[in-house]
Amino acid sequence: MxxxxxxxxxxxxxxxxxxxxxxxxxxxxxxxxxxxxxxxIRLKFDPVVRDSKKTVLKFYAIQCIVVLPILNFTxxxxxxxxxxxxxxxxxxxxxxxxxxxxxxxKIDEQLPQAIRKFSALTGAGMSSADALRQLAAxxxxxxxxxxxVMNREWDMxxxxxxxxxxxxxxxxxxxxxxxxxxxxxxxxxxxxxxKALGELSASLGGLIEMRREVRAATAEGRANVYGLLxxxxxxxxxxxxxxxxAVYQFLTTPFGxxxxxxxxxxxxxxxxxxxxxxxxxV
Length: 282
Hints:
Layout lengths: L1 H21 L1 H22 L7 H22 L5 H9 L2 H33 L4 H11 L4 H13 L4 H12 L2 H16 L3 H50 L1 H9 L1 H25 L4
Helix pairs in contact: 1-3, 2-3, 3-4, 5-6, 5-10, 6-7, 7-8, 8-9, 9-10, 10-11, 10-12, 11-12
């Protein structure tokens, strides 16, 4: 058994290497694109520059040498393991998007409190730059990291308006854009910054409470939507172990394709339609 598995791993790795070599220019472009993408993602989370080349190459090696042979060995239907393997390539991007969206949601919830503190500091006589430096030391993560980046740009000689607008463009949060607009307009035209920030903080706090209520009310519906997408592939995967021949016929014959194609279209279409209904924007 172990010898058979080792042989499959070796043959699969050799085949994957041969295919990669035959398309080496395209593979090289893909690797360089993935390295650039990972560099950008890492800079979003942490401004410390890191070399992503080793991480990307390790991921490619594990995918080709370990994951692909295991899927081919464990999934009884020929070709189905390759299909699952190809699907795994999109997981890093989806995971990074999930973590980034989760981080943005946390920052959005922390922003009203940070604005109140900024308003109190400027009301006590601090300049906007000193208030940002204080926020970088006292606010919780992850919004603290954004204020650290802003202070680092300020210490390197950037204009305060450019620093705040850069953070707003990086985060792409409407609430942070409003905060940046208030600070920039005050720096250019003057006015009662403390009052403007106090009103903005109160408005954003009320909006966040409303969003929490909506998310709580629609949580079950959103869970059912993702169950609609995951359910059919999961059932097909389970049936493949119960009745391998039936699933093989289903995936390799025109009759099976005539059923599988419309089923995939209806499943994806139903998922997108249901998600649009469940995702209520506030």
